[in-house]
Amino acid sequence: MRRRDFITLISGATAWISVGRAQEPRRVIGILSGFSKPLPFPGGMAAFHQGLNETGFVEGKNISIASRWADGHYDRLPSFAVELVGQNVSVIWVTDVPSAFAAKAATKSIPIVFTIGADPVKIGLVKSLSRPNSNLTGMSIFHSILGQKRVELLHELLPTVNTIALLANPDHPSFQPDVLDIQAATAALKERLEVLAVSGESDLEAAFATMAQRRVGALMSEPDPLLMSNGLLSWQPAMRYLRCIRPECFPIVVV
């Protein structure tokens, strides 16, 4: 074969391979979250992309990302999950318990990877940690089992405080078990727990007013998408509500 013919053949083959690769469909990764974007976690989405890049997946090159953010509105999650399934995503990453249940209800075949703070077995998300026996897997920081430790820390910081408030969303799947655990911890220390249900921003002012009336000395909050999205519990809104109830009358320690 002449050199010119060889170069022509190789050039044509290279062009064909490049076109073939360009036509290959990218894998689509779905993100379903009850939080607002960006995620209120250390690293957030930057850490997510870094992890993908380290394993050879780069958005815009060999993967695409379809994301749905519910901004604390759980009622949006089921339809968002169905939308992601309709986009034929290869995997769905969920960032919280409500999103995990929504994705689980939407598909039995697409892999679902969860990052949650609750015990996935205790809340009924999977059957076993070692053998989930479903299309779900992931990790939990087991924040829910730290409720007792948080109460103990508050007691060490403020041994004279006998009333603790807990802000929690009754619509969250782990609301009941988390409240029961914290109630048991406060009862063991002979402290009173005021459970203040917050289902939206409109409930915050009433919750803080109740804290003032009942002379609450410490405040705990659950890591709930509703409470953490849109800065509902960031310092600026919290201080606004504290000013409304004359915080000089009593101290509040937030844990």
- Provide the succession of SSEs: HEHEHEHEEHEHEHEHHE
Helix content: 25-40%
- Largest beta-sheet characterization: 5 strands, parallel
Q: Count of helices?
A: 9
CATH topology-level fold name of the largest domain: Rossmann fold
Name given to the CATH homologous superfamily of the largest domain: Response regulator
Number of strands: 9
Mean pLDDT: 78
Radius of gyration: 24 Å
Outline the low-pLDDT stretches.
3-23, 234-241, 243-251
Describe the structure.
- The protein is 40% helix and 18% strand.
- It starts with a helix and ends with a strand.
- The radius of gyration is 24 Å and the shape is elongated.
- The chain folds into two domains: 22-141, Rossmann fold (3-Layer(aba) Sandwich); 144-254, Rossmann fold (3-Layer(aba) Sandwich), CATH 3.40.50.2300.
- Mean pLDDT is 78; it is low at 3-23, 234-241 and 243-251.
- It has 255 residues and is an alpha/beta fold.
